[in-house]
Structure formats: C-alpha cells, structure tokens
C-alpha cells in the first residue's frame, strides 16, 4: 500500500470512528427510552437567576421572605429533575436576569448547574432579560454552547444568514436498535424570539424574523421528507395568537394583570402561519408571562405557557412557582416493538411539598379519534 | 502579447461592451426622466381578460351591455397610456380570468398587447384567477417573461428556494449622466401573493411565504446599503393590515360587500411586519378587491388598492372602472441638477369621457414636515 493510500485509509477510519462515537453517545443523540417508549421534556421558564444566595425572591409570602433566594430556584430544579428524570431539560429564556447580575457567566453557571450536574442533556433559548448585563446575546449563547451536556447551538450549521442566536433543531430518534433508531420521530425546534424591537416604528418586544422562519420551514420540510414525525417548538415570547383563547378554550390560567394579558410583540410576524403551514409542530412552549400557564389549541397547534419557575422573577405570592413537563409516548406494536409517536401529553408540577401535578392533558394523538 | 493574454483582453472587452449595451438600453434600465425629474407608474389591476370581443362585460349599465367586451378593457389601457405616458406599467394580477379563457396564451397576448405596442416597459405579478385555465402559474410567468418590453422575471436570479412565480425587484436609477445615474433611487418590489391556501387547516386565499419575505428583506438591505432610496411594493392580494382603516383614515372608498370587506388571506403571514422592519417601502399597491380603491397609512406605510380596471371583472354598474397612477418626483437642487426622491404622490383616473382624476394625494415626502 502506498503512503497516500495509507493516509486516506487512516483518515477514513478516523472519520468512521468519529461518526460511531457520536452515534453511540447518549448525550449527543436524543432518543426514546426503550423500556417505557417515552421521551420526557422538562421545561424551565423564566428563572431570572442573578447572584445566587445574595439575590432575594420577589412576590413570595411574608413568611418566606427571610430565607428565600435564587437557591430556591436551584432547589426546585433539583427536585423536578429528581421527580421526573426527564430525557431533556429546556430552559426557555430569561434564564438570568441581566439587570441584577454582577457576572453573567457566573449567573449562567449557577442557573444551569443542576442540569449540568444531572448528566441529562439540556437546551437553552434566550429571553428578553438575559442580555441585560455585560454579555451580548451572542456572547451568552457562545458561553452556553461550551457548557457540559448541553445540546444548545449558537445557530444552525450551514446557514449563512439568520437573525438572533440560539436557533437550532434537535432530532429525537427511536429506541436504540429499532427500525426508527436512526431517524427523527420527534422534531424539536428552538428559536430566538429576540428581546425588544429594533424598528423605531414598532414598540415593544421582539419577534421571529423571516430568516428564522425560512430556516424553520426548510428544516421541517427536510425532516418530513424522511419521516412524518410530530414536532414541538420552544422559544421565549408568546405569539400574538396566544390571545385567541378564553377560559372556556384553554387549560390552566391567565392571571397576568396586563392589558392585554399576553405580552407578545406588538406586530404579527407570521410565525404561527408558518408553523401551521409546515404541519409537523403540534405544540409551542413559551415563557415570558409568568402568571399565565395555560395551553390552548388553535388550528391544530397547542399554544402553551409553562408558568414562571424562578423566585427572583415577578410572580404572585401564594401562587406556586411551576414547571411544565411534556411526555411523548410511542405506540406499542402487536409484536412488542415500539412504533411511531402515539400521543403527546403535558402536565405541570407546582413547587409545593408534593410537587403537585396539575392540568394533565393530552396535546396530540396520532389517531385523531383516540379516546382518553 | 501571448495568446492567453489576448483571450483575456478580448473577454474583458466583450464583457464591458455587454455592460455598456445593457446600461444604455432604455427599456432594460428604468430611470427618472431628466426633464421633469419624475418616474411615473401606471397600475392596472384585475383586467380579468378572457377571449376579447367575444367576452362580455360584467356589472355595467343596461345601456352599455350590448357593445361591451374585453375590448373595452383594451381601449381603457390604450387611453390611459396615451393620457399618462407612464415610465412603467404594472399589472397586479388577475390579468386573465382563467375560468373563461379558451387559450391562456392568446388571452395574455391580448391583455398585455397595449403595453407591448406602447414600447413602454411593463411588469406583471399574478393574481388568484390567472392560472384557472390550462397553464400553471409557472407556465404563465414563463410566457410573460418572453414577451416584448416586459421587465417581469420568473424569480430572482441566484435565489435557489423561493415560493411562487414572479418575485423580483427593479431598480429605478437617477437621470442619465447624473451622480445617481448608476444606482437605484427608487426600489420596486414585485411579489407573488399566491392564489389559494394549500394548507388544509387554513381556508381562503394565499399569502407571501417566509422564503419570499427573506428574499425581500435581504434585497432591501443590500439596496439600502448602497443608497437610502424609498421603495414601492406591488402584489395582488391585500395584507390583513388593509383592515386597519375606516373612512376617517383612508382616501378613496371601500365598497366591497363582503364581511370583512377586505379579502386578504385568513391568516397573517407577517409581511407587513417585514415591510416595516425593512424600512424602505413607503407604499404597497394591490388589486383583488375591485370595489375598494383606497389608500390608508399604517406605521409609515401606505396600503393602497387600485380599484378594478377590467370589464369582464365583477364591478358596480355606474361606478367607473379605474386605474392608479404613482408619480415619484426628484428634488431640484440649487444648481439645477436633480437630487433624491423628494415626494411620491398618487391619484386615480376613471374610465369616463375625461379620464377624470380623483383622490390626488401625497403618499410620502423625504422631509416629513413638507407641506402640501
């Protein structure tokens, strides 16, 4: 064998090894659990983490004030991880509260510490408050993507032009060794919904831009060409269509005192239409409005809040901080093997003594007539 | 000189010649008139052309019925061209009425004939009825781009993925030989607003998709890097934001009997937000609703209808068919040369004996405080 051939063979072997390491790395490739046929996501919205023990809680009962700090947020995450053992933890923005943060890197490290030490994969999008310290949104995401066990990405590989930081997708493959073991049967999308409008004529919050929608639409189309998998989307700021419901048409509550009680951008940037057009996303999960925790269904898509999680975030004294869990379950075939996703359900847990489960509901079923 | 050098020189010379021919070709490069410092656009909305003399008029007075056909539409265009001598004619869709068309190529040839024979550059976007005969939207645009004197394009050069057919932009350069003679000082955008929704969950008309908005936003940004020129956008189906006005806030009328009287898509695809974000487009011109002919201003952008032009289109007996004219005027500097666009005005003409001018109004001025 000539020297050049040897170099080529060594190169091919190294490359194969690299692929094989990635494919077998449980952290890198999300997949359904082969015992239960489930994939579980824990959503943590609006931690508003600042400086740990020194940072006091907002809107808690008088008896809680003295001993309440960011550490209560940390302890709540740890308990949720312990109780749920999720396959993925998603932080949907306002992870740190920039204004009160002395050192944003230290705040992020502390905020995400329970996820890092759990060895569970975790993913982040940014809110509107994260960059209000000394780090830009790009700087924040660059730090996050370098942390242990995170699947967060700065932006999608191979896309030259995209607004924001932290737009990416993750594939959840079927159970190991199964026929769907090497393809996505649950598509997860993460988008940067921005912070504030930079257009002088438009006041208020940011929105998901055409570049991001185009990337989403193209990605969804490519994934659906391979497999008709359902999808879930996570970002921070609610879409204007979150205002389409009332108490008769949602599960949960809408306690935000604002008028309107939905703090979306002041303009409609069309992402809901793009989601409906793409067809795979069955539910959207945001944070931002800490006192709204509902899910409402519009044109086949569930629009869900998680409710506020963090103790340094505004809240309502006596109204528990909370977290949303999503579980996608596979169909069990007659031969005992796992099929496609059969249904997706969600519930919330309150930060009380029992981590009480509330508002358990099915968001989507593969067969529309499936009964519960 | 070596052979290779000679080939290179010949190549460079040929290339320069090619550029020079294109630049001096009045048909290919739109530019402001150097005598008046003006650029005038005639908009023809909803001709609904079918088979010429054999195709009867709709919604005309009883005394007009016997001698009224598509030829009345042709005659109206001819008179408008004669009266206005525009620098560009824009046909904003439903140019032919596919359902009643025996031969779509013959219908298009007849519909656009007055523009072709005028030697004036003309541009086309499609409506929702054009493809209702035997030619697809792609087929229609492919025929159109091959016709004489048209500046219509199938889709933008170098863009791999874009929804629809007939998305393109045209630059209007400054007067010949002036400092702005080789750059766009008025940006024109043409978009395919589609026909009908192809998404089962969304009924009704089509909309401008993320791929098109991304192209528009990128094109606008590139143009504005070179020059802060105002822009105008032409397409067929009104945006949902056309519903933002009442008679106290628009100029013209809203006589459509529908509820709502604005037949936009049933969803908001965000193009208005994208337009506001881009910043250069000062006015949008659509057709589609033949009995609406107003302009209303929202967040710095005028949303204008042209009013129905064609006699085989539905209309209102006794309410004249009409056409919209837009005139962009350059600032005259103290040394007598022309500067940037100083103001953009519009008016309509009715198809009566005098081609009566109505609703003359200023849409945009370079200096916001400029008085009229």
UniProtKB/TrEMBL annotation, chains A, B:
Domain of life (superkingdom): Eukaryota
Signal peptide, first to last residue: 1-23
Protein's cellular compartments: Secreted
GO CC annotation: extracellular region
Co-factor(s): Zn(2+)
Domain spans labelled Calcineurin-like phosphoesterase: 39-290
InterPro entries: Calcineurin-like_PHP, Metallo-depent_PP-like, PAP14/16/28/29
Alphabetized GO MF terms: hydrolase activity, acting on ester bonds; metal ion binding
Keyword Iron found: yes
Pfam families: Metallophos
Keywords, sorted A to Z: Glycoprotein, Iron, Metal-binding, Secreted, Signal, Zinc
Subunit composition and interactions: Homodimer.
Protein family per UniProt: Belongs to the metallophosphoesterase superfamily. Purple acid phosphatase family.
The protein's name: Phosphoesterase metallo-dependent phosphatase
Taxonomic source organism: Helianthus annuus
